Amino acid sequence: MTSPIDIEGGGASVVVDGAPGPEARTEAVTLTGRSPGQLMWLRFKRDRTGVISACVVGFFFLIGLLAPLISGLYGKDPYTVYADERPDLFDSAGVPVQPNGGISGEFWFGLEPGNGYDVFTKLIYGIRTSLMISVAVTLAVVVTGILLGVTAGYLGGRTDYFIGRVIDFLLAFPAQLFFIASMPVVVSLFVSPRDETPTYVRVVALILVQWVLGWMGLARILRGTALALREREFIEAAKVSGASPWRVIRKEILPNIVTPLLVQSTYLLPGFVTAEAGLSFLGVGIVEPTPDWGQMFSKASTELVMQNDITYMFFPGVSMIIFVVAFNLLGDSVRDAFDPKTAR
After folding, report:
1. Contact partners, residue 161, CB within 8 Å, separation at least 6
2. How many C-beta neighbours within 10 Å does residue 287 have?
3. pTM (2 decimals)?
């Protein structure tokens, strides 16, 4: 016998007539819809690569946040000069006596040739410094990209023309060369060249320099998205209803740019991590004794380290490769979860 369908209270109630009379049983099945966010999350959870990448990225951020706690449990810090505290561990040239930089149960990643800093604590604090700076730059870039990109795309006209020319002008700068050239100039605005530069000034300068030349790409993407959205029917309906431009942007445009915004943000952050490390490697970023990822690469490239402890480069190098690759794979997975039609 055919099973009739009865609609009850918004859910679908399916009546199954297994047998006539009192033995007939009723089985209710409620059909519920899912929001786009829930569908995205379900697709993302099915992507094993994305889940693993998210776990790896989360692990690095956890290491950065808990660096002081880990250092306390480990019993060492990245500022102790063991070449002075424990001279028996080093030869006359400042090189650890034990092979592979003195890796042991006491010093898990060994000791740095020269000053003798503990490599393990220097690495976790270096991850903390680099991620802190890169997250701050990414947030500043995202906010700027939203404000200028969406405004230009939605308002159009002279506003779009003016912002577009500013973007074109800034994109003409060779970013890496401008980073190197402008860092000393920005630092000199806060501190006299005759005085020693505090670490917080270098951090602020790194954030400012990368932010000034880092927001244009995201702004252009969001501008194009806003241009396409402003011609849609629901935007026209909002205008006809008397909504102000700010309300249209806030209520209609912004919720519809979450996908490109989130995807692009996952690509921006690892780029800023490597840019910050590059500046520190060249000596215009973070300098000793403040730990930093790029500073460790700079130390590893010195003649003393290259000739006596080739394993020193291994730890910062492998950790950065893993982080950047995992974040890029996470960006691909987020893009695929939002847009299942894309194929890798």
Report:
1. none
2. 14
3. 0.80
